[in-house]
Amino acid sequence: MMQDNTLFVRSQGSRSVPAEAEGGTAPILVQGADSYEDPKVSIRIIGQCNFRCPACCTGSSPSRKGILSPDDFERVVDILAEERFRGILNLSGGEPTLHPDLPDMLALLASRLPENRVILFTNGSWIGQPDWRRRLTSFLSFSQVTVRLSLDRHHVVGALRASAMPRVRASFDYLEQVAFRRAQAFLDHCVAGGGIPGRHFDVAFKGDREAAQSYLAPLGEAPVYCIELEKKPEKRAKKLGYLAVDLDDAGYPMVYLTLGHVLRNEPFGGIDALPKALAINREALSRWKGTARP
Ligand code: SF4
After folding, report:
1. What is the per-residue pLDDT across 9-25, written as a single tens digit (0 to 9) for each?
2. What pTM was computed for the model?
3. Ligand 1 centre and the CA of 259: distance in Å?
4. Where do the domains of the chain lie, and which CATH numbers do they carry?
5. CA end-to-end span of the chain, whole Å?
């Protein structure tokens, strides 16, 4: 059950656990792969990012090339619709809000895959810029979209490394304050626009629940999505049920079977390999759940 201004904590791959069972009092919302019929699919629509985060799992940076064309994106969406995909679709980058066709992409997803949840990851660097409220309102106008704002020390370091500021503590502290102000403005605007916390917007934090509660305390109660990644890339690559359409170094869209693909895996194939890759991950997910797909 989602409630306004409630702290939600989510762990990748975990099952739903009442907070009381863990000794806590806040409700926990877990939307792991087991909550959906299909494995999660991540679509990387742009390679470029205006941050340089350490250990970025997609190896993104301001200089990284590659952008998914509207035609290729439509082909991916067509395949997922033909395959009757029912799950979570991550729109990722790089920084996906840098893609000039993002509004059209969201509109296409709304019309062709309306029963899926679309997670729009963003580092929030555009919040506070002219027109940011109109942009955020337009993202929230798609009811199946969750706008997920990343806020943690990794991202503050990423902002610092991409800036011309001296890499000293005072610069980090300044950018961290900016990041929190952006996050607060983001949350306020989402709430004012009638967005449901945890469904239409949340804050992503890399780390566990305790670390999130401590670091994000200045935000008050907010919907928080905890990402507890395996530290070792080879272990990340073995995460189940996470299929990616990514851009290779030459900028061509390729299909990868697992998270961590950029660091470890060879591509499974081009976009046309998506149905087969989906079938493999569906079968793996069914085995993991202990249920056979019909
Ligand atoms: S903001 Fe995200 S995509 Fe960009 S460098 Fe950081 S982790 Fe990577």
Report:
1. 443 333 333 333 333 32
2. 0.85
3. 15
4. 8-286 (3.20.20)
5. 29
